[in-house]
Amino acid sequence: MEFKLRQHQQNAVDAARPILTDRGVVLLALEMRLGKTLCALQLASEIEGNILFVTKKAAIPSILADSELMGGFGDRLTVCNYEGLHKLKFGGFSVVVLDEVHRLSAFPKPCKAARLVRGICAGAAKVVMLSGTPAIESSSQWFNIFWATARGPWVAFGSGPMAFYKWFKGGGYGIPTPIRISGGQEVESYKRVSEVVASEVAPYAVCMTQQEVGFKQRAQVVPHLIDDSRALSLGDEIEREGILEIEDRAIVAENPAAILQKKAMICGGTVLDDDGEVLRIGNRAKLDYMVERLSEDRQYAIFTQYIAERDLILDEMHKIGRSAGDDMEAFKAGDFDIFVGSIKRYCEGVDLSWLDGAMVIYSLTFSGSTYSQILDRMCNWERREPIKVHVLMVRGSVEERIFDAVSSKQSFNESFYKKAKR
User: Is the pLDDT of residue 2 over 80?
Assistant: First the structure.
C-alpha cells in the first residue's frame, strides 16, 4: 500500500514548502504526536541531494522506521544524534533536519551542540527545524535556535558567540536586568524581550495544535500532595546548614542549585552523598503512597528524575511481587505491567498512545520542555480513552514550586502558538 500523509500533515508540508524555498529554513512547530518527522522527511525527499537528520538517540529507531514506511531513502539519509555530531565525517548535506530543536536554545552563549550544528548548516542548502516546545521558557531562546542554522531574522548580528549580546542590547530588546536569586547571587535576566520576537519568527514557522487537528483526548494532570515531615525537615536542614549527616555519611550542598537538587531528591527517598554514592534515606511516604494505589489489573508507566529513584521503585515492585522493568520494548510487548524509566530519556520520540493504563511522574524535572513533552506521550489522533497523568509531590516542599514553574512554562509554550500563527 502506497504511503500517504494524513491531511493535517500534508497541510503542514504545503505551508512549509514555500517558506523553505524562499528563506532556506522553516520551523515546523507542531504540537507533540502530530507527525513532525513524517512532514520533515517529506519536505527533505523533495530536494535533491543528501539528507542529515539530527535527533536524540532514543528517537533514531522510530525515525528510521518512518523513513522505511515512506519507501526508504537509501544512501541519501544519515540519522545522527546530537551527542554524536562531533564524530560525523561526511559533509555536503543538501538538507539538514534538526529534530527537537529546542535543544539548541541555550542563551546567552550558544551551547556546544548549537556551535556544531551551525558548522554543518552553513554548508547546507536547506534547514528544517522541528519542535513541539520550541522556546518554552523565554523568547530570548529564539536567537540561538536560528543562529545555529546560519539563517533567520537576525543574521545581521553576526556568527560569533557574542551575537546574542549584540542582538539583545543593540536590537531594541531592552537592557538586561540584574535579578537576585537564592544565596544572594545576582545574575542578568535576558527573559524580558519585546513582543516583536514572535512576529519576527512567524514568517519562518508553520504552527499546528492538537486541538486544530481534532485530538479528542489531552493529558489530564492529577496532582497528588503527600505529607512527609521527615523530607521537609531534612530539606530545611540542608538549606540552613549546607550539609547533612545520615548513617555517618555526609550530604553536601554548597550552592543554591545543589541545595535545590538535594531537597528534590530527598522527597523521593534517595540522595547522593559527598562521594557521589547513592543513599536510601528511609523516608518512604511518596513510595508507599504510590504503591498502595497501583491497581493489579492496569499498566503503569512511571517516570523519575533520578536513576536512584528508578532503582528504588523497581526493587520495591519486585519485593511485593509486581512485574516491573525498565525496558520500554519489553513493556510494550507485555512482558511486565509496570515500566519505570527516566523522564529525560523518554520524554521525546516515544509513543505510549497504546498504553491503556496511566502515567505517573514520581519526581519532577526542572525542565519545562521535558514536562510538557512527557504529558503528550500517550496522545494520538485516534485515542478515545482518557489520559491520566499523576504527578506526585511532597506537600510544602520544593516539588510544589517546581510543579508551579513547569506548569507556567507549559502555558508560555501554548501562548507561542497563538502569537506565531501566520
Answer: no
